[in-house]
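Crash report, auto-generated. Payload:
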Amino acid sequence: MDKMKKNLFKNAIMMAFDKTTLIKKFTYISRAIIFYIPLLIEKKSFSNKETDDELLGDDIYPLF
Amino acid sequence: MRTKKNNKQDSTPIYGFDKEIGFWGLKNLRHEAYFDYEIENPVKIFHNSDGMREEEFSIDNRKSLLCCGGSHTWGAGIKQNERYSDLLKNYVDLRVVNIGHCSLGLDQIILSIIRKTEKFNPEIIVIEQYVWALHRVITKHINGYLRPSFYFDEHENLKVNKIPFYHRFKWLRKAIGNYHDYKKELNEYIEGINIKKEYNLEEDPIFLSWKTEFYSPMYKLIDSLLELIKSYCDDNQIKLFFCLGPLKNQLDFNSKSDLVDYDLPSRKFKSLLTKHNINFLDTKEHMIKKHSQRPVIFPDGHLNSYGHSLLSEIIYYELKNLKWIK
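Recovered output after restart:
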């Protein structure tokens, strides 16, 4: 497991165990299992982005 | 907001799915709404055929003054004719159109201006912004609806995700919304923010100076959104004006520490408005003075009818000073 996977897994589990009741802990562990893969995909695609500091290019209008 | 039916309280929606904005006012709505803080004074709500809390407009060539914003502009807790936009109708020659809607973020306000208002032939656009609500631009899911999301592509250009057709299905929205809520909560947890467990408006993370880093993507997005609306208005010869409403925190609370700064989001927002050369007015000082004599807001922070009358005067005199109106 690479570092990103480990961190995500660790934080998701820590958040679940930080919940006050057993039911909430269980619910959040279930959510962590269900959402782990989509979260990982999103995190990976985000980290692959180039991070130039420029704000906007000239082609903002293709939006509309 | 709460509504009452057969003496039983329930929450009846006032908006529904919209393929461009995420959600928008229900068309031709006729409703009597009971707000928590005005439970004895129900407010009649009428939406026109465009889903706006406005009279029915005939389409003609008349120039308009558009009032845009969230629930303050929509008029939460007050009658339609008490809103600042309706009071402005008494002073201004232009046709005044209120397109405010509850829970709209700045991104949705800008999208609604670009996509829904051309037919009103706007000459002046007034955007009322409650700066606490700026965080909505980084929130994907709100009140059961998914918002359009602006983002930067790999070349750092601003883009917006089209709202997929399947978002019209409530159960699908709920499932996708659950994912976004979880992702938001996890990101906040990683940054040491726990809104669900111990939320306190007096210490909302948006006011905490040591959490500024968490909100920097939000301000970056707002920066680009302001550039977008400014260039849209310039291209269409529309005069753009921002009006910053007073925050409940600024009016009712005293900060316990210099590190909890209730002016932080408005200061940052004003610096961005200045950067883009956008006319604006912060009503805080004026409202604080008046609030000490007579409340200008309801307990939940929405402007009451007195607050709206003050706001209409402030906007009127400011537009007059700018020589945008006679």
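Post-recovery validation: Residues 3-46 of chain A form one domain.
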